[in-house]
Design brief:
alpha+beta; Pnp Oxidase, Chain A; 2 domains; 9-stranded antiparallel β-sheet; 5-stranded mixed β-sheet; 13 helices; 23 strands; globular
């Protein structure tokens, strides 16, 4: 059964012994970050701070801090399960007969249940503050790191729409400036930023709503690299196998937010207005630099009775966002394979902080196939930001970092197997010489073919005789050595 809201998820975690309630008074200024950082790096439990200085609202953190909890939150035993289901749907053969069409009906009806469902009211609006009663200071937002520019909302579902009404939900950090203004930090490649550019061209304010706290599928979907125009809440409905109920905002017509969210912050962005935001200790392990970003003017704050503030801390990996990134990697593998069927598997290693490095294994079918894959990835969606791509043969386990690096060392002549290009980079890439683009590296660690100019004989792997392997394995098992 899907989790209806954050409370359901917390109860499930607690029933598994993976939630620790902290009754000691803890400050949201740096201290909760230190608690979370120590806990996530020790693969410890989720934390619920019940006595937060300066606020009556408890703080929940590290809810996605392990692959096990992330899988639980998304309703699967293994993160690959969602990707496997998507792959089965993508590979449905078009029906050719009446009987085959009738057999497709249950599947089509099932998919038809996933789009978000509009409702007239929801718990997220149990309590409503508007006008002079709006005060962001009531919320226990964290100052995560010593040199941060202020206190931030980090685990956000930011809902926007373009002037034509097409929705988007992204996860963007929001810095509190004062009681009713904040900084909306998004990068020029993001859909939210694109929406704002379109509103600015019209000289009109853009409505925005930020949801905080919700069922795990809804929270996760804000991080998903969905194509423009595809509603992230559809993905959330697919994951949770139940439509996400969406309620109209109280002060921003045309926007809908998850009815089961804990807290909603509504407002607008004024065209042409910018204010200095940052610095911010980011998932790269470095502070992202201060810069000018749109100003978020708050028109309403609504919340459930007795709300819970859900948040996340990013920084030097591993952190909680590592598990969210791994979920994205697994769920979107079928879409990559649909575009690039030669891909066997891929891995975004933890040290690469999502966009610095990617390992790909491919079924190599022709000369320079690895280079073709590199250039395809550098031109595809958000994965285009990848700075280092390493391509190996299909027999290599890309989730074994040592195995990948072994083949880089063993299979590469670096005067021949390196591809260096220029292209877009993540805005958080502080090493790039120019803003928004950088040099990128591709490494072809596949076996080389004669058609690629390799004239020597390629040696075979050292592999033990299977019969001997089985015999010795049985002997060692009997002696308790295996």
């Amino acid at each position: 059964m899907p989790f209806e809201n954050l409370r359901d998820y917390l109860n499930a975690i607690e029933s598994r012994g993976e939630l620790r309630r902290i009754k000691e008074k803890v400050s949201p200024i740096l201290e909760i970050t230190e608690w979370a950082d120590r806990t996530v790096k020790a693969k410890g439990p989720a934390l619920l701070f019940e006595n937060v200085e300066g606020s009556s609202i408890p703080v929940a953190i590290n809810l996605f801090g392990t692959i096990g909890r992330t899988s639980l939150g998304l309703g699967v035993k293994d993160l690959n399960d969602i990707g496997n289901e998507i792959q089965a749907l993508l590979h449905q053969r078009p029906p050719e007969t009446i009987i085959e069409k009738l057999k497709m009906v249950p599947l089509l009806l099932k998919i038809a249940n996933y789009p978000p469902k509009k409702v007239s009211s929801g718990p997220c609006q149990d309590v409503v503050y508007t006008g002079d009663k709006v005060d962001l200071g009531m919320l226990p937002a964290l100052k995560c790191w010593p040199d941060d520019g202020g206190r931030y909302f980090t685990l956000t579902n930011v809902f926007t729409r373009d002037p034509h009404g097409l929705p988007n939900c992204g996860m963007y950090r929001v810095q509190i400036f004062d009681k009713n203004t904040a900084g909306m930090h998004w990068h020029m490649h993001h859909d939210g930023a694109r929406h704002f550019r379109e509103w600015e061209k019209l000289g009109k304010r853009m409505p925005v709503a930020v949801a905080i706290g919700g069922d795990p599928a809804v929270v996760f979907s804000a991080t998903a690299p969905m194509p423009p125009g595809i509603d992230e809440m559809f993905l959330a409905g697919f994951i949770r196998k139940k439509p996400v109920e969406m309620v109209p905002c109280v002060s921003q017509p045309g926007l809908h937010v998850p009815a089961q969210a804990e807290i909603i912050i509504e407002g607008y962005l004024e065209p042409g207005e910018r204010r200095r935001e940052g610095p911010f200790g980011d998932h790269t392990g470095f502070y992202s630099l201060a810069d000018d970003y749109p100003v978020f003017h708050i028109t309403a704050i609504t919340h459930r009775k007795n709300p819970i503030y859900q948040t996340i801390v990013v920084g030097m990996p591993p952190m909680e966002d590592t598990c969210l990134g791994k979920a994205t990697e697994r769920i979107f593998l079928p879409f990559l394979k649909l575009t690039l069927p030669e891909i066997v598997d891929y891995n975004l290693p933890e040290f690469g902080v999502f966009h610095n490095c990617a390992f790909f294994s491919i079924k190599k079918s022709y000369p320079q196939h690895a280079r073709k894959l590199m250039h395809a990835i550098w031109g595809l969606g958000q994965i285009m930001f990848t700075k280092i791509i390493i391509v190996v043969d299909e027999n290599v386990n890309v989730h074994n970092q040592d195995e990948v690096l072994f083949h880089v060392g063993a299979n590469c002549d670096f005067s021949r197997d390196i591809e260096v290009v220029k292209g877009p980079t993540d805005i958080l890439d502080h090493a790039s010489q120019f803003y928004g683009w950088t040099g990128k590296l591709g490494i072809d660690a596949t076996r080389k073919w004669k058609d690629e100019g390799f004239t020597r004989e390629w040696p075979d792997y050292i592999v033990m005789d299977p019969a001997v392997k089985k015999k010795v394995a049985d002997q060692m098992k009997n002696l308790g050595l295996a």
